[in-house]
Amino acid sequence: MITLTGVTKTYRSGDIETAALKSIDLEIAEGEFAVILGPSGSGKSTLLNVISGLDTVTSGKISFRGKELTGLSESGMTRFRRQYLGFIFQQYNLLQNLTVYENIQIGSDIGTDPLDIDELLLKIGLEKTRNKYPSQLSGGEQQRVSVARSLAKNPAVIFCDEPTGSLDEANSKNVLKLLQELNREYRKTIVIITHNTGISEMSDKVIKMNSGKIVDITINPTKKDAKDIHWG
Ligand SMILES: Nc1ncnc2c1ncn2[C@@H]1O[C@H](COP(=O)(O)OP(=O)(O)OP(=O)(O)O)[C@@H](O)[C@H]1O
């Protein structure tokens, strides 16, 4: 579904060059649950940024469902992102003066084939909070709302950058369970960037990065349910 061939990214500021990605080859399959692990500075966020067109590559090619993305104009890339990609970050980024329902509605408004918001509220188990404001919810609940918001426009792929970074184990597992259900029931492709090795146990593919390179890719023969993963 997503194919990277010889992708490099070098940041330049003045005389200083940082090779953040060094000739990356990678395939993410349709419907796959993939996790990208690696120490701080290994290039995980840069990889996510170039795949999603938030940043450009220095060289190499990225294609999505056979169509080359590298080379698209900025507006072409924005259209691609809007149509196919959802994002979840460590910060929930909810709008504080909008209700839960309205926050999710922002996501569905930008989609061409959005999902039903009431159905999504049921799915995330927060139907009773539809008229509450983010400050009236726990961190875990807010993150589930941000998952629903990113899903509302019905994207093919959901990218998550440390989605459980601000949460305790119980709340993290609730968010991960939700992502697992979206993967299983809606066939969404999920790519999670994390430091948390426990998340590998529920993934199809575990991609390890170090110093701008992919150093290991493991395919899991069996996957655990989110609630059963080891929490270090
Ligand atoms: N905008 C930028 N300008 C210059 N260098 C950058 C920029 N963004 C990232 N880098 C450098 O590129 C390398 C990879 O950074 P990146 O943020 O992708 O790592 P990461 O694995 O996501 O780290 P973390 O887990 O801490 O978020 C690092 O050496 C970083 O300092």
TrEMBL record:
GO MF annotations, alphabetized: ATP binding
InterPro entries: AAA+_ATPase (IPR003593), ABC_transporter-like_ATP-bd (IPR003439), ABC_transporter-like_CS (IPR017871), MacB-like_ATP-bd (IPR017911), P-loop_NTPase (IPR027417)
Keywords: ATP-binding, Nucleotide-binding, Transport
Entries under CDD domains matching the protein: ABC_MJ0796_LolCDE_FtsE
Keyword ATP-binding belongs to the record: yes
Nucleotide-binding is among the record's keywords: yes
One Pfam family matching this protein: ABC_tran
Listed SMART domains: AAA
Gene3D superfamilies, per database record: P-loop containing nucleotide triphosphate hydrolases
Domain ABC transporter: 2-229
Annotated family: Belongs to the ABC transporter superfamily.
PANTHER family referenced in this protein's UniProt entry, alphabetically: ABC TRANSPORTER ATP-BINDING PROTEIN MG467-RELATED, LIPOPROTEIN-RELEASING SYSTEM ATP-BINDING PROTEIN LOLD
Protein's name in the database: ABC transporter ATP-binding protein
Gene source species: Planococcus chinensis
